[in-house]
Specification:
The complex is a heterodimer. By secondary structure, chain A is an alpha/beta fold. Helices cover about 65% and strands about 5% of the residues of chain A. Chain A has a four-stranded mixed sheet with strand order 2-1-3-4, with helices on one face. In chain A, strands 5-6 form a two-stranded antiparallel ribbon. Chain A has two domains: about 1-35 and about 185-420, no CATH class; about 50-165, D-Maltodextrin-Binding Protein, domain 2, CATH 3.40.190.10. Chain A has helices spanning about 1-15, 20-45, 65-70, 90-105, 120, 135-155, 160-165, 190-220, 225-230, 235-275, 285-315, 320-345, 350-355, 360-370, 375-405, 415-420; strands at about 50-55, 80-85, 110-115, 125-130, 175-180, 180-185. Chain A has 16 helices and six strands. Chain B is an alpha/beta fold. Chain B folds into two domains: about 1-220, P-loop containing nucleotide triphosphate hydrolases (Rossmann fold), CATH 3.40.50.300; about 225-285, 2-Layer Sandwich (Alpha-Beta Plaits), CATH 3.30.70. Chain B has a six-stranded mixed sheet with strand order 6-7-8-3-9-10, with helices on both faces. Chain B has a four-stranded antiparallel sheet with strand order 2-1-4-5, with helices on one face. Chain B has a four-stranded antiparallel sheet with strand order 12-13-11-14, covered by helices on one side. In chain B, helix 2 packs across helix 3 (about 105-120). The model of chain B has no long low-confidence stretch (mean pLDDT about 90). Classes of the chains: A alpha/beta, B alpha/beta. The interface of A and B includes residues 221, 222 and 226 of A.
């Protein structure tokens, strides 16, 4: 046991002292925060300029309404969209090709073509150099809709104001029942689930790769047999996996501290820097979710870690390992692909079954725990199944590992690996 | 008491017998060499002694006890495939390996310093392994082998890759340890070193024992049937002579194995004057000749 501890200590301190770890641990959350905050900041201070949009109104009744609806202002008080009516005289095709030229020459940002029967047919065209700015097209489309609908209503002798009043919708507030009672939830649950599951996914792949690389390094540097003169291959493998687990938990610990700080002070910091961001609420992670997160990380880590250790022992280089890693990584990618399905119907029997399959369980059961609290029996069952598969995997991996780490040269075929397992 | 006793060990990999029914024992104190051509099963045998791979059948006893994990403390092992963690500092790495051998920290620190001093590596203690030359790394590997003062030291191809200076150093330390009543087992296929330092040898080929015993007795058994000849000229005069069984010619030096009962003087008489002879010596066969004879005889 003390020998395993010696191996654990070495793995832990070598890793924790490395530059890569320090950078990853400190920079990880900074990057993560950056990924979340930077787009928010940018969307808030997006540089906008006045745009000139020509309108060819063949129906001759829409333009006026459109101008009064599209009255959004820029920060400096100018109109965001400056409309310019083009009288539809002469050949319409000539007018349009003339406008096309103007758009190409950037004299116009875009033009809107409203046919004579726009109100009846409900069709119009928006022409621009690029039409990927959904926000802009949505605004214009909404304004146009408003004008056309109003016109239709008035045509039927109805009062648009009244109709608006009658068709006003209901504002639905989403709440989540917890032990403390009902609480408003504006997508925070979803965000937490999403972020935690992605962190779990990335760290499982990341630490799996570290284990594998460690095994390959030991093998390639020919260090392994010197170590085996003191302990059993199984002790070396366990020590390595446990040592790197400790590294992972250290990293999680640092990130958790950062997360707590962010949810405590992040909002205040943001609103201090940018008053307009005061409305942003950073969701807090409930303690039980964090506990399950750590539990499923540990379980997933041991399941995948042993597989990666076995792969590392079979190959001579990381390049060779790539091919073997592919199918393993697939088992981590599949639950990510199934995520949306499980979020939408976390209690369907399909979701329940998927979250019990040990290779998927760490990610999918955690996801379900984040969204709703599944029956304890299901959580218990997934943990028991995971533990059993871990034991099985350790048994298999140990048998492959003890032979593999002493084999140099050609990568073994699958049949050979099966034969290794029969060696005494 | 025997330092090592191996009884009928067999190891198969698939259909291939790496070691087959091998038995030998090594008396305590002295230098024992395990010889054999490449692929003879030397490394597999040593790995079974070290409990790194488990024999399919047969038993290994070390100092009278069945080999197990605890007995690893008593043995220092220098594997043939050896290397060190490149990113670790020399001192830390040796400390790690000493801890794996359950050496107390204070003792380990002292031993590490003594050995680094002895092998002139003290100023490298806080350098990373990758900064060391290959020769220095070999010395570090050796320190790792003996850091826990083992009673039995097993060296798999200890001289491979060593320059003459380090070879001499290694030989000196081996003799010193022998004087210190330690038991040393080493494997090699370079006969000159064996001839100079071994007390006993064991020759294996294709996983089986071919020859075993004290070196002097083995050579004695062969008798003085070998002529060492240093010469200049056309050596073809020797071939076809009735006294000659086999010739191992190096151009200016040759080892001639005589037929049973042949008279070396008669041979000398026949070649005098036909080539220039600077040395003509009748002696026991060299270990090299015995090795080749035994291994080729089996083929």
């Amino acid at each position: 046991m003390s020998k395993i501890l010696t191996v654990i200590k070495r793995e832990y301190f070598q890793m924790v002292k490395s530059k890569g770890f320090i950078i990853g641990t400190v920079l990880g959350p900074v990057l993560m925060a950056g990924i979340i905050l930077i787009p928010m900041v940018f969307s808030m201070m997006s540089v906008e300029d006045q745009e000139t949009i020509a309108v060819v109104d063949e129906s001759r009744v829409i333009y006026a309404g459109l101008e009064s609806k599209l009255d959004m202002k820029l920060k400096d008080g100018r109109l965001r969209y400056l409309l310019e009516e083009v009288p539809p005289r002469g050949n319409p095709e000539e007018i349009l090709s003339d406008l096309n030229q103007k758009v190409l020459a950037k004299e116009l940002s875009a033009y809107l073509y409203l046919p004579a029967d726009v109100a009846e047919e409900g069709k119009a065209e928006f022409v621009s150099l690029h039409v990927a700015d959904f926000d802009k097209t949505r605004l214009i489309n909404e304004a146009l809709n408003g004008v056309v609908i109003e016109k239709r209503l008035r045509g039927e002798g109805l009062d648009p104001e009244k109709i608006n009043e009658y068709t006003r919708g209901v504002r639905l507030t989403t709440k989540k029942v917890t032990k403390q009672g009902a609480e408003e939830d504006r997508g925070g649950t979803f965000l937490i689930a999403y972020v935690l599951v992605l962190i779990l996914y990335m760290t499982l792949i990341f630490y799996g790769a570290i284990i594998m690389r460690g095994v390959i390094e030991e093998k390639n540097s020919r260090m392994v047999e010197i170590i085996l003169s003191s302990l059993k291959p199984f002790q070396l493998m366990s020590g390595k996996i446990l040592g790197i687990a400790a590294v992972g938990l250290t990293q999680y610990g640092v990130w958790a501290l950062f997360g707590v700080a962010l949810s405590q002070y992040g909002g205040r910091f943001m609103s201090g820097v940018m008053p307009s961001a005061a409305g942003i609420r950073i969701p807090t992670i409930p303690v039980y979710i964090f506990v399950f997160f750590v539990v499923f990380f540990i379980l997933g880590y041991f399941l995948y870690g042993t597989v990666y250790a076995a792969i590392g022992s079979m190959v001579n280089s990381e390049k060779e390992a790539q091919q073997l890693m592919m199918p393993v990584t697939m088992f981590l990618v599949i639950p990510i692909l199934l995520m949306m399905f499980v979020i939408r119907s976390p209690e369907s029997s399909m979701s329940v079954v998927l979250s019990l399959i040990p290779l998927f369980a760490p990610i999918l059961m955690l996801l379900r725990v984040c969204i709703l609290i599944p029956p304890p029996l299901q959580i218990g069952a997934s943990i028991v199944l995971l533990l059993l598969s871990i034991l099985l995997m350790i048994w298999v991996a140990a048998k492959i590992y003890r032979v593999g780490i002493l084999m140099y040269g050609k990568r073994p075929r699958f049949g050979e690996v099966l034969r290794w397992m029969k060696y005494k | 008491m025997n330092a090592l006793k191996i009884d009928n060990i067999t190891k198969r990999f698939g259909d291939f017998f790496a070691v087959r029914d091998l038995s030998f024992s090594v008396a305590s104190g002295g230098i024992y060499s395990l010889l054999g051509p490449n692929g003879a099963g030397k490394t597999t045998t040593i790995r079974m002694v070290m409990n790194i791979i488990i024999p399919d059948s047969g038993s290994v006893r070390v100092f009278g006890q069945p080999m197990n994990e605890n007995m690893k403390q008593e043995i220092g092992y220098l594997p043939e495939d050896r290397g060190l963690y490149p990113k670790m500092k020399v001192g830390e790495l040796l400390m790690f390996l000493a801890e794996l051998k359950s050496v107390r920290k204070a003792d380990a620190r002292r031993e590490i310093d003594i050995w680094l001093e002895r092998l002139e590596l003290t100023e490298w203690k806080n350098k990373k392994v990758e900064e060391l030359s290959k020769g220095m790394q070999q010395k570090i590997q050796f320190i790792a082998t003996v850091i826990h003062s083992p009673r039995l030291i097993i060296l798999d191809e200890p001289f491979s890759g060593l320059d003459p200076v380090n070879t001499k150093l290694m030989k000196d330390i081996m003799l010193e340890m022998k004087a210190d009543k330690k038991t040393i087992i080493f494997s090699t296929h370079r006969m000159e070193q064996v001839e100079m330092i071994s007390d006993d040898i064991c020759l294996i080929n294709k996983g089986r024992m071919v020859l075993e015993g004290p070196l002097h007795r083995i050579k004695n058994d062969y008798g003085k049937n070998t002529v060492i000849l240093e010469y200049e000229g056309d050596a073809s005069v020797l071939s076809g002579q009735a006294e000659v069984d086999k010739i191992d010619d190096y151009g200016k030096y040759m080892e001639i194995k005589l037929n049973e009962g042949a008279d070396p003087q008669a041979l000398l008489h026949k070649i005098v004057g036909r080539i220039r002879i600077s040395k003509f010596e009748v002696q026991e066969p060299t270990l090299n000749a015995i090795f080749i004879d035994k291994v080729e005889g089996r083929r």
